[in-house]
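Please study the protein below:
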Amino acid sequence: MQNWLDYYQLKYSRNSSKRPMVKTGFLGCCGEKVDAIDHYTSKIEKLSEEIDDERARVQKDPKSIMPAAFVSFKTRWGAAVCAQTQQSRNPTLWLTEWAPEPRDVYWENLAIPYVQITIRRLIMGVAFFFLTFFFMIPITLVQSLATIDGIENAAPFLKPVIEKSFIKSFIQGFLPGIVLKLFLIFLPTILMIMSKFEGFNSISSLERRAATRYYLFNLVNVFLGSVIVGSALDQLKTFIKQSPTDYPKTIGVAIPMRATFFITYIMVDGWAGIAGEILRLKPLIIYHLKNFFLVKTDKDREEAMDPGSIGFNSGEPRIQLYFLLGLVYAAVTPLLLPFIIVFFGFAYIVFRHQIINVYNQEYESAAAFWPDVHGRVITGLVISQICLMGLLATKEAAQSTPFLIALPLLTICFHRFCKGRYEPAFVKYPLQEAMMKDTLERAREPNLNLKGYLQNAYIHPVFKAAEDTEDEEFINRLENETELVPTKRQSRRNTPAASKISTGSSPSLPEAVQEHLEP
């Protein structure tokens, strides 16, 4: 309603000789003709009163109280003790954990009970298993058809056309990669919906879970499903008849044979994907369609131009897959490595530019993705070592294969050491560090008072509008009192209403403020 009012006010300012009129019927196509500015002004006033009444009713309704709360502490030490200890004898009665940043909260999942979350995650785990397994069947069938022999067997009348050199090169080179890419278009959206159903309470945790499953899906269907070509049932039958010790040998024989496919896949998905990322043809087309049909005010244009945030749930697992391919084929088929190097070179340049100059930072997760990334790198190392053992077992160097068993064992031991030594830094907060920072803060800024911000930081966005003015005054006062150092360009779009602090896309706040925001 406010947007329509802005549109008609802008229209009247351009031609003040005639007041804009609008019909009050269905979609403005029928009904009584009234003054548009007066009509939308009265509508907004009426809706504002209803919203205020509804806010007051919900705040007084005991049935609207959620079984979850955000607790702010005067010291980091108190927050660390509470978040990292068990609060009651019954471990499911009162659960405490580190709260996400205000922008990172996924409000829809806060009220889900503990037992229901457990059941939901079990259901989604089973659903993901069947999705991964049964998705292999259409992929392998289409992959087998997307070859010269497969097309000739399925459609013999196309043989004269297929035998032409240009079409034959396209089918052998790019068709399997394109078909596989088409199958994976909607997968990130499906996995994100599954993660939301599981009940995670932050956007970063939703993207981390979706990224983990996307990587597993790529590992099983793109890597293993493409290495061992044929129908899914034949693969299953072959593996059932073999002993487990023969699995590495089977994969080791098949891996060099699929190097050509992965080279074309890197060119189709990797190189073309990076080119599409820098060109952003899809957002460009969508923007012009919106600009032509929907944009009426500056607010509409700003929303149409909003680039959004970078998709960690799909981009990061894809890069991890190429890292896996590089590790596997480094010793098996080194010819693939230049294509991987070119991809990573382009990806570094393009994504660095996009993150700094294009995308908006939606939230700050305090490097929560890094343990997952490290684990996937270790997984790629172990898989490459097992594949190398399987390949050497089929060659004359079979006697050296038992000595290679030490490689995956040492890699796993290294991973366990890193997990025990460094992972706590990502999931826990040392009390010693908390006490040191509290002491330094009291000495450097004895008059710092974050109470005004903390009272409203975690209010639900529905109730946030009434508190916006106070938050803006508080943040402006902090920024005026402190020397600021810009970290990157100003974002085109301001921080969403859920939070008045934007870390990364706006000048940084004092260290003490950011430290309080992390818990």
Summary: The beta strands are 21-23, 33-35. Residues 114-145 form the longest helix (32 residues). The chain is about 65% helix and 0% strand. The chain has three domains: 2-64, 108-427, 449-517.
